[in-house]
Amino acid sequence: MWIIGFLAAALLVALTPGANNLLALRHAMVHSFGGAMTGVCGRLAAFAILVGAVVAGLGPLLSASEWALTAIKWAGVAYLLYLGTTILWSSFRDGGVDSGEPGPGGSGPGENGTPEPPARGTPTLRALARKEFLVAITNPKAVLVFTAFVPQFVTPERGSVATQLATLGAVYLLAEAAAAGAFAAAGSVIRTVRLSRRAHRRLDRATGGVLLGMAGLLAAESA
Fold first, then answer.
1. Burial, 113: exposed, middle or buried (Cβ in 10 Å; 0-12, 13-18, 19+)?
2. For 34-93, how does the pLDDT look when each residue is reduced to its tens digit (9 = 90+)?
3. 17 with 182: CB under 8 angstroms?
4. How is residue 159 annotated by DSSP?
5. pTM of this prediction?
6. CA distance 131 to 180
């Protein structure tokens, strides 16, 4: 029962809108559900590293280190600023197509109802995974999930603490994958709508603005 209770709590945490879930949504809109979920593998790899650190006993040291949390925080701020600025810039420069990415729905109608030309230089699936990885590993809130939230469900009566942490970490990764799948599925639904180039620009500008807002909120928080 404790695993079921933890899974329910983990799903609530994982479903919280954040930068990684926004990326999953956008990657599905721009590429496909499969492409978005391939990108999510980067996020899960980052979280697996954090799980490994907690199991190895580094969790309390990491969560108690003001220097480490501050460094992670500002790295996260910098990367969110980079992503948000890049998407906004491309929406003004290329009509809403980030780094040559095709708009949602592929080659949909243009601003005047004409089909958009195929985009060039589409990022590889490895690039999508790298974005998810960097956003996840530089998120201090993710660090606290594994160093403060997960250990709350560990009790010595259930046996080895390391085994419990590893088990709970694996369950959380499943919850995170399910939550990412939900956001990617929503993006896939949006992708089926053949949007105009103007709509592509608006979506990209909204995405870039949200990422910049998240960077600002993260910067304003105490480490």
1. exposed
2. 999 999 999 999 999 999 998 888 766 666 667 777 787 788 788 889 888 888 887 777
3. no
4. S
5. 0.77
6. 14
